[in-house]
Amino acid sequence: MSSATTQALRTSLRRAASCRRYASSSSASAPSSSSSSSSSSKLDIRPKAELPADKMRILVDLYHQSKTFITKENLSDAIDEAFIYAHAQRQTLHPETPFAALEMDVMHHRRSPKFAPPNNMRAISSSKDASHNKDWDWSHQRGPREAAVMSTLYGVTDGKGEPQYDALVDGYQAVKQEIEKEKSAKGGESE
């Protein structure tokens, strides 16, 4: 070997030798309890910095969308849905909705509350809307303004009932306080 190669190898080995090794606190090779406690604190893998609220909101929205992601397990079903079933739905002729049914829908919508679920859930009679989404329900019928009001009032994303980041933070804080109360209650009973 050349001297430059040997020198580079020795330098890298010196760097590796000077690095600290972290071991499990339950390791049989731990010499004393003080070293095992220090190694367990070194193994504490928690995030050092939190993401800003805007990025956390995006991550929560991404999590809510993850159920529609295509994976290896559902790839075949997604291909069938895209090329077979979607094409078949577009080819079928939907019967025209009678005028009386449209009038009933208008009356039902006028009587329905604006910011709460209606008294009875009904299928949408409009063929255009029904073919647009199989899982169509009342929460998807809101306009953008109503969806923004619902998101502000109830902390849900786009009226789908999935919690936004702010609601998750509030829930986390409430659960954390409840756990602290339980711990203090157990601590008071044992004394």
How would you describe the overall organization of this protein?
The protein is mainly α. It has two domains: 1-46, no CATH class; 53-170, no CATH class. Helices cover 59% and strands 2% of the residues. The protein contains eight helices and two strands. The protein has a two-stranded antiparallel ribbon. β1 and β2 form a beta hairpin. The protein starts with a helix and ends with a helix. The model is unreliable at 27-33 and 121-135 (pLDDT under 50).
Say how many strands there are: 2
Query: Which strand order does the major sheet show?
Result: 1-2
Shape: flat
Strand count, sense and barrel status of the largest sheet are: 2 strands, antiparallel
Mean pLDDT: 70
* Fraction of helical residues: 55-70%
Strand content: under 5%
- Element string (H = helix, E = strand): HHHHHHHEEH
What is the total number of structural domains?
A: 2
* Euclidean distance between termini CA atoms: 71 Å
Task: Specify Rg, calculated over alpha carbons.
Answer: 30 Å
Number of helices: 8
Low-confidence stretches: 27-33, 121-135
Structural category: mainly alpha
Region (Disordered): 1-45
Biased composition (Low complexity): 14-41
Biased composition (Polar residues): 1-10
Short structural description:
By secondary structure, this protein is mainly alpha-helical. The protein is built from eight helices and two strands, in the order H-H-H-H-H-H-H-E-E-H.
